[in-house]
Amino acid sequence: MTIDNTEGARAQxxxxxxxxxxxxxxxxxARHGHTVALHNRSIAKTDALIAEHGSEGDFVRTETxxxxxxxxxxxRRVLIMVKAGDPTDAVIEExxxxxxxxxxxxxxxxxxxxxxxxxxxxxxDRGLHFVGAGIxxxxxxxxNGPSIMPGGPKESYEALGPLLESIAxxxxxxxxxxxxxxxxxxxxxxMVHNGIExxxxxxxxxxxxxxxxxxxxxxxxxxxxFTDWNAGDLESYLVEITAEVLRQKDAKTGKAxxxxxxxxxxxxxTGRWTVKSALDLGVPVTGIAEAVFARALSGSxxxxxxxxxxxxxxxxxxxxxxxxxTEDIRQALYASKVVAYAQGFDQIAAxxxxxxxxxxxxxxxxIWRGGCIIRARFLNRIKxxxxxxxxxxxxxxxPYFRDAIETAIDSWRRVVSTATLLGIPVPxxxxxxxxxxxxxxxxxxxxxxxxxxxxxGAHTYxxxxxxxxxxxxxxxxxxxxxx
Length: 483
Known about the structure:
This protein has helices at about 20-30, 45-55, 65-70, 85-100, 115-125, 140-145, 155-165, 185-215, 220-230, 235-245, 270-280, 285-300, 300-305, 320-355, 360-365, 380-390, 400-420, 425-440, 445-455, and strands at about 1-5, 15, 35-40, 60, 75-80, 105, 130-135, 145-150, 170, 175, 460-465, 465-470, 480. The protein is an alpha/beta fold. It is globular and about 80 Å long. The termini are far apart.
């Protein structure tokens, strides 16, 4: 139903930016009994939404920002669903100029968290609340229940939280939405979520590649494997849709659609942001980084075309026992996924410490169980691990995940070694295994690195048997002095 905006401030929430995501989330609010004010720079999109879906709930049609703001109950709550960057800043400024102290602006796009920190501080000075809310689940999630990660002032969540929780996905009666923390924390957590998503997708892609190139399976055969896996510990949204994608036939050629799609993966930037942030924080997210680089390499089509035919070597035969190798791939996929999540949670912990956000890993595992792209059965295990030990040094050290990796380790090594001998690229599998080996190693070659740094730059080093920093007089008599 369309409400005439001359009736006054009727809407509990406003949505501006009515592309697919914005339209779907506006419909989600309306379906849950909230009156929704609609605004879009192009009025045609507002009218199209009302014409097609006006029967789903109460919508208030507005044409100008002034009309839009006037249609909202106080404290006014406006969700922005526009392109990140300058367009977001422009809409924020337009809204802020029309709003009053205590009103709430929510950015539901994939904004860079440092931009959110800046925007929250600027609007706070103007008496407005700014909430950076990560929203995961894509178009379907936005309409039927996403995972929502709102950051910003705690007091703003008192007015905003009930609305967001009502439209979020629900798992075991718990909404997949909670107040994350101050200023940019919500968008930071969503960024890392997307980084984990990159790693998860790359690992699944590498598993598919092994079935295709090491075992000679066609797309339907691989789809059957993923369907089977989705009934077990690997149950997840991404594993589920992988089987569906692999079974899809191309209407034009009759071939598997995956075989006629160009093998160049695109990206919108959140994966790169994750890796850049991890570098700044000094946190190794090797699986995520390899996934980002794998997409970049896939897009280097001219280089790849020129390199076709380079020597591969021939050091191994293809696996003779397909059933055993299939199980090895399953175990390697599970273990590598654990590493990806462990690295992501390490980054979240480091970001929380750096910005004094006070984030709680168990809360994040809870709200990622439904609605979002990385939703998976084992997020319940992650929640349990952090509930039991909120200061867990690494997810890998939680008893359940430690046992799972110890069970998988031989399969994991066989997969990486077989792929290497066959010349099949598995950067995420291999880097995840190397990370695990480095983490568990009693000694790393970093001691040599420190010796080299001290030799050419007098950067000093520490000793295992004494406190303090030391320096060797490399260009002198090579005696050691305390720095």
